[in-house]
Specification:
There is one protein chain. With 412 residues, the protein is of the alpha+beta class. The longest helix has 27 residues. The protein is globular. The strands form three sheets. Strands 7, 8, 9, 10 and 11 form a five-stranded antiparallel beta sheet that branches. 47% of the residues lie in helices and 19% in strands. The protein has 14 helices and twelve strands.
Amino acid sequence: MWEVTKQTVRAGIRGTAALALALVIGQSAAAQNLFAPVARVNDEVITGYEVQQRQRFMQLIGAPGADTDSVIDSLIDDRLRGQILDQAGLEVTPEGIRSGMAEFASRADLTTEEFLKVLGQAQISEETFRDFIVISAAWRDLIRARYNGRVDITDEEVDRALGSSRGNNGLRVLLSEIIIPAPPQNADQVNALAERISESRSEAEFSSYASKHSATASRGRGGRMPWTPLEKLPASLRPILLALAPGEVTAPLPIPNAVALFQLRGIEETGKPSVEYSEIDYAAYYIPGGRSETALSRAAELRGQVDQCDDLYGVAKGQPANVLDRGTKAPAEIPQDVAIELAKLDPGEVSTALTRANGETLVFLMLCNRTTAANADVNREAVVSSIRQRKLEGYATQLLEQARAEARITRQ
């Protein structure tokens, strides 16, 4: 499942704005027929306006499948779900709709009102959001009510699930990276450059951009990173990378004071069990001056003086307390830009790719330790819930496929 965050929403506003511009420039004549049918599902129609709105919404939340054909397919599925719900006489209460909208908006750390304002900026109607929530919530309730009693989970299934999680082959990815500093005064220029880089179609082209513009240590290698276990990367980044084919580049990913892009060069199974981490211990020492020659020189000097995180306490002695941050956090609690840099490091290694305070402060980031999550700590009830959800999704897929097979569906 894709993840909705403030970063994906902000990136999505730019994408939907671009889509709106393309529609205005390239489809002025077609705009007159925006409400003409593009597909029919039994006696119901899907209009070009609905397709346009859903595309903008999918781009805003950073979800996959925002191309026209995929959006039409998803709207056809929604029509089928709606017809099944009508036959079942199931409706969502106004309170349920408000709760669903609030829960969805909270994924981006926004209130419903704040999220609706963002939708308005992206030229997405409130009705598009509301319809999306209504269908999703009602369909989930229907599947639970109709099939929950049929789902029987044995102790053996739970044991197998735990055992297979111990033995799953891990994946590793071969990436190239570009992280471009983007202080507020240069944000528009950097965003435009990042959009051009995201259109790279060869490793050589991406490497050339990295050599010229990236702020990472890999710049001298054309942005090329070594093989990296997928589980070391931020959880929100993993599905984005897995959706790429070798040679493809991510959309620009906004991070504090910078923009990140990744090109997938290769992916393979490791033949070893995947490892999940419950806690990451790291330290950040803040150097004034941003990416100035003086600050970078101080960072290089410091790199030669410290071998482990504890050494930074001596460096920071006598300075304000906020010059050094040291803590242990769950992976999901670590800011994405920090998590990306930590993924490249072994304990005792350092990154100086990041800044804070609008680019005025250089971050001397050191990985202290990673704590592996043990399967012994897994809550069996959480495993039961996961198995139940997977089985319910199977019933939902079967019901939808049956409805699709029996429906009269045409595309214009």
